[in-house]
# Entry
Amino acid sequence: MDCIFCKIVAGEIPSNKVYEDEKILVFKDINPCAPVHNVIIPKEHILSCADDITEDNVDIIAYIFTKIPHIAKLSGLEDGYRIVNNCGENGAQTVKHIHFHLIGGEKLSEKLN
Ligand code: 5GP
Ligand code: ZN
# Structure
């Protein structure tokens, strides 16, 4: 499959890994928008949160959220952070493998856009 994030999971594209277990991978964003900008992905290919989260795969999404506090701590984000999911064309999703941006390391703007 021609998916950048699946290739990162497979080790075909290098990444700076922050956390990995059997279900998920976290790596540094190649184009960070804040001092800390990590990308959290399920290893399983799920396209987006538009129509692709089902009863069969929702557990991995819940799992990601149970791991976020640990990942945030590993990332040095003691004083808060932002989780962002871009979804679909108008949501500016450029990589069609569901992912959550973990952003922080500074006081973020209250405005989201
Ligand atoms: P999206 O715009 O789809 O929400 O976010 C995709 C993110 O993946 C972007 O922030 C982009 O910088 C990042 N990204 C795209 N290709 C690569 C890559 O090959 N390696 C890494 N580490 N990040 C990537
Ligand atoms: Zn993929």
